[in-house]
Amino acid sequence: MINQIGTMRKCLLFISLSLFIFPCAPLSAQTKQYVTDSSLQVPLRDGTVLSCMLVYQKDAKWPLPAVLRISCYPMGADTTRAQFVADSGYAGVFVYNRGKARSGGSFYPMENDAADNYEIIDWISKQSWCNGKVGMYGGSYLGFTQWATMKKIHPALKTIVPQVAVGPGIDYPNPGGIFLTYSLQWLKLVRNNHYMDLSTFQDEKKWKALNTEYLLRGLPFNKLDSLEGDGMDTVFQRWITHPGYDDFWQRMTPTAEEFSRIGIPILTTTGFFDDDQRGAMHYYNMHNQYGPKGGVSQHYLFIGPFDHVGGQGGPRRNLIPPYPIDTVAMVDQKQLVLDWFNYTLKGGKKPDFLQDRIAVFAMGENKWHYFPSIEKMNRDTLQFYLPAKPEETLHTRKRGGKPLLFHYDAADPIDDTIVIYDGASSIITEGIFRKKYLETLSTAPLKEDMILNGSITADLWMSSGTPDADIMITWWEIDANGRKWPLAHIAQRLSLSIDKTKPVYWKEHEVHHITLDNTPWICKQLKKGSRIVMTISPASNLYWEKNYGAAKDVSQQTLLDTLLHELKFYPESYFSIPVM
Fold first, then answer.
1. What's the rounded Cα separation, in Å, for the pair 496 and 522?
2. Residue 330 and residue 306: Cα distance in Å, rounded?
3. Distance, CA of 196 to CA of 186 (rounded, Å)
4. pLDDT digits over 5-53, tens only?
5. pLDDT, position 423
6. Which end of the chain is more exposed for a tag (fewer CB within 10 A), N or C?
7. Which residues make beta-bridge pairs with 269?
């Protein structure tokens, strides 16, 4: 999710970028002697050849354990990253996806990774410089590609460290069943040439103007690529025919049965303000639900007050507006990854920081907490029921009465260009309170301090006067001084809220129960006297495909399909807050 200020935010989000995720090695490391071979080629069974770079210390004694990154983002900093692990006695290996760098074939994002990665690891394990042990790490797309590798685990693969991992069909390109306008922008970055088309990608004026024109003219989303001026994009067109989490997306990552066979040690890392946190948590939760006991016991989770860059060991900010980040949170994640590889590939001791399977940082309290499982983290769950009128407080007990009504006109563009996202994180800004179509609900002041820890969940009993709608819900802490602290948000297409795999259009005023549980995890101390505020609005902005409400493919809808929306939230509706 981006705004016109935040193009580079999303650049970082998928590129795992760049020169600073692993900054230039210190002088002592730069003066060391390395052997670098960028001419290696990995042959695949279908005849495609992938380009490969190998780096190791000149005085290293073969064979070595290999640390692998499989990347669609070729860049000069890759050599530095490979040197980083080579300094600790590993063979640093980069392999580039089909169609990237000097690799043959064409790059079809997320479609070939699972099959190709097995062959890549098989080839590495048989090289004279490899001792038969391979570990993987990397963030964003490079986090996804590790989980794709888990569909068919090669025996040489001993561990993975997926960082801020993208979840296809979960958090990108269609979170909540709503496509991101950013998806086309990213495709231009990675598919326009064998490297990265940064000039097109970073043309902020172009992309803002394109998305604004698409919305204000009421054009169908499936014309966005043609409107961009470069003609039809086949991958973009293929993606938008799959708004639900159907087999197209599911086959890219492990199924429940495949998770049941994952028994190697895993270190998952993400952040509260990471746009791909929900992808990372999807994999973590699926493995915990379906994985073998021995494998689950070796799966560790590291989560704290980090954005997409910080969640994979990049530079940490001491302020992610409006949140100040305490220095106690600034664990050296690069060293943690090295310690993890020494533990899993060399038989060293487990990193001291990993005191239990879950490490989570509580903002406000400024303390790391450790837990054996998500189920054993929290002591209570608070529930707040929706009122019949916005001026009434959210109730702690269910009350009868009339439903809360919410009306909006999808043809009115007044809210569509309001900036509601921070340009450097996934945080919702106070801009959302400027929306014309917005309901704001509030609790009474809290009677004591408490620590919110986990994902806020909404259970809604709803009806709609239209077959479909895209809604956005946000939650805030407003403290006794009136300062607003964003806690969580979620956007959801109603037609994909009952069956996430395919649209189910709603009959007029038929009541449905839906659960919205894919909100970002946050751990924050809520102060006595604060109020928890919930907002409801249409998910209609520069960031998203526009849903006019008709019972047809949203990517084909235009302004002419506009229906006036009337949503009803019945008194059984509530949201839940997990409390540590």
1. 25
2. 9
3. 10
4. 344 444 444 444 443 344 433 333 444 699 999 999 999 999 999 999 9
5. 61
6. C
7. 163, 302
Dist CA 542 CA 540 (whole Å): 7
Separation of CA 256 from chain center = 20
Written as six digits, the tokens of 336 are: 């943690």
> Phi and psi at residue 370, in whole multiples of 5°?
-130, 135
- pLDDT at position 6: 41
Residue of 73, 84, 156, 75 whose CA lies nearest to 119: 156
Torsion (CA) 185, 186, 191, 196 in degrees, nearest 10: 100
| CA within 13 Å, CB half, 104 | 10
Per residue in 149-202, pLDDT (tens digit) is 999 999 999 999 999 999 999 999 999 999 999 999 999 999 999 999 999 999
Question: Do the bridges between strand 130-139 and strand 367-371 make them parallel or antiparallel, or are there none, so unpaired?
Answer: unpaired
Q: Tell me the HSE value of 172 on the side-chain side, using a 13 A CA sphere.
A: 26
**Which amino acid type is present at position 341?**
F
pTM: 0.94
Q: Which residues of the chain fall short of a pLDDT of 50?
A: 1-31
Token output for 506: 């709603």
Counting DSSP H helices and E strands in the chain, the numbers are 15, 24
Element housing 574 (H / E): strand 574-579
Which residues share a beta bridge with 484? 478
CATH architecture of 7-372: 3-Layer(aba) Sandwich (3.40)
pLDDT the model gives residue 32:
67
Per-residue burial over 224-258, b = 16 or more CB atoms within 10 Å of its CB, e = otherwise:
bbebbeeeebebbeebbebbbbeebbeebbbeeeb
User: Token digits for 307?
Assistant: 């954005």
Single out the residue of 296, 280, 297, 300 nearest to residue 288, CA to CA: 296
Task: Report the candidate in 229, 197, 224, 200 with the shortest Cα–Cα distance to residue 213.
Answer: 224
In this predicted structure, what is the pLDDT of residue 31?
44
Cis preceding-peptide flag for 520 (omega within 30 of 0): no
β-strand pairing of 64-71 with 450-454:
unpaired
In whole angstroms, what is the distance from residue 298 CA to residue 292 CA? Answer: 10
Residue 126 has which token pair?
């048989």
| Residue 394 to residue 160: CA distance in whole angstroms | 44
CA separation (Å) from 425 to 100, 215, 271, 377?
28, 24, 10, 26
Q: Let me know: does 266 contact 147? Beta carbons within 8 Å.
A: no
Q: Which two tokens stand for residue 278?
A: 């929900």
**Cα–Cα nearest to 70, from 143, 20, 131:** 143
What φ, ψ does residue 211 adopt, rounded to 5°?
-65, -35
HEC sequence for 180-247: ECHHHHHHHHHHCCCCCCHHHHCCHHHHHHHHHHHHHCCCCHHHHHHHHCCCCCHHHHHHCCCCCCCH
Hey, what CATH topology would domain 380-579 get? Jelly Rolls (2.60.120)
Query: CA-to-CA distance for 497 and 503, rounded, in angstroms?
Result: 8
Q: Does an H or E element contain 277, and which? A: helix 277-290
77, 128, 194 from 42: Cα distances, Å: 21, 14, 17
Instruction: Give residue limits of the domains in the chain.
Output: 7-372, 380-579
